[in-house]
Amino acid sequence: MNIHINANHLKYISLITLTLQNAILGLSMRYARTRPGDIFLSSTAVLMSEFVKLITCLILVFNEEGKDFQKFVKTLHKTIIANPTDTLKVCVPSLVYIVQNNLLYVSASHLDAATYQVTYQLKILTTAMFAVVILRKKLLSTQWGALVLLLVGVVMVQLAQTVTDASAAAAASQTTNGIEQNRFLGLMAALGACFLSGFAGIYFEKILKGADISVWMRNVQLSLLSLPFGAITCFVSDASKIFEHGFFFGYDLFIWYLVMLQAGGGLIVAVVVKYADNILKGFATSLAIIISCVASIYIFDFNLTFKFAFGAALVIVSIFLYGYDPNKKATNSAGPIKVVTSSGGPLRPDEEKLLP
Predict the structure, then answer these.
(1) Which of 151, 179, 198, 332 has its CA 20 to 30 A from that of 81?
(2) C-beta separation of 242 from 41 below 8 A
């Protein structure tokens, strides 16, 4: 069966998917942590997300192996059991991602969605820092300028949300659904998540690059090793609450939706990101920031100030500037996108669609 895919449509699908993933997750996490009712334990939500991701990726690997159960089992054994060195390497990012996801919930509990969204872009800075230190990469002058703009923008956003007068300070110290809003704690959690995100990304590039393993099998390894780390985190941080109220305390349909979103969102992005160049990724992140700001005004009564808007604008400009390479010619603008048919073979020349 022939598949005709317009390359321009793929880019738009990528843009929409990346934008929604970036915006909706932050808004959903903030709403889940501040809405009325029983507050779920975020450590259990992180663990359940890894479990859902594991099951999803196992199904995808099974499909990759032609739905042959024996071949599927042999592949799992060969990749995970018979290759312990590679599996042990994945232990590091598995632990990092568990801690990072827990920190993101802490940040979402104490920062409004817009501030959280802008501050989390500092992962660009931490990734660049680790790339320079670990991989010995050289950044362009435009990229250094972008990192300075990014830092200034995030600082302005934080200063815009700093409470100065006494009445506002009293309002800021109030609790939201039993959780005392501590902006400093939220900021530190976001910075910690950015630091871990940068390290994990560069670790993969340094240690695991070039391995002949599919993205789904790699995620099976990650999730499988994340489960024990996630379980330990649950009982270290929330043991008394789990024994008193139960593991799924506070869960309802929205929390399960959040678990699915966190588990599946990253996998969806992994599929579409290959069709997204740096400019499109910049558009997606920028649109996500704008959506988060607008949605926060109506959902969370967020007060958008000029200083916040200017800081967010600097962050958006820095994202585009960091992804811009003046020395690189646009080769993708005229090249064909290779699409694989359901039979597994490449499209014939008359089936390929060129970018406009």
Answers:
(1) 198
(2) yes
pLDDT at 46: 95
Rounded Cα gap, residues 231 and 214, in angstroms: 26
Other beta carbons within 10 Å of 180: 12
Closest CA to 107 of 165, 236, 149, 115: 115
Contact 29, 105 (CB under 8 A): yes
pLDDT, tens only, 6-42 = 666 777 777 788 888 888 999 999 999 988 888 999 9
Answer whether residue 326 is part of any domain: no
Helices (H), 273-355: 278-299, 306-323
Q: What would you report as the CA-atom Rg of the chain, rounded to the nearest whole angstrom? A: 22
Four-point Cα dihedral 65, 257, 282, 153, nearest 10: -140
Give the angle subtended at the CA of 193 by the CAs of 189 and 195, to the nearest 5°: 115
* Residue closest to 49 by CA, chosen among 99, 101, 93: 101
Residue 353 lies in a domain: no
Task: Please give the tally of structural domains in the chain.
Answer: 1
Q: Which residues form the domain of 29?
A: 9-138+197-276
Burial 225-239 (b: 16+ CB within 10 A, else e): bbbebbeebbeeebe
CA angle 210, 280, 195 (to 5 degrees): 60
Cα gap 182→326, rounded to integer Å: 42
> What's the whole-model pTM score?
0.80
**Residue 38 counted as domain residue:** yes
Q: Is residue 349 predicted with pLDDT exceeding 80? A: no
Give me the chain's average pLDDT, please. Answer: 81
Fill in the amino acid letter for 306.
F
Write the CA distances from 140 to 145, 201, 321, 326, integer angstroms: 9, 20, 10, 9
Chain centroid to Cα 63, Å, comes to 25
On whether residue 192 sits in a domain, the answer given is: no
* Cα–Cα–Cα angle for 239, 240, 244, rounded to 5 degrees: 120
Give the highest mean pLDDT range of 135-139, 184-188, 264-268, 269-273. 184-188
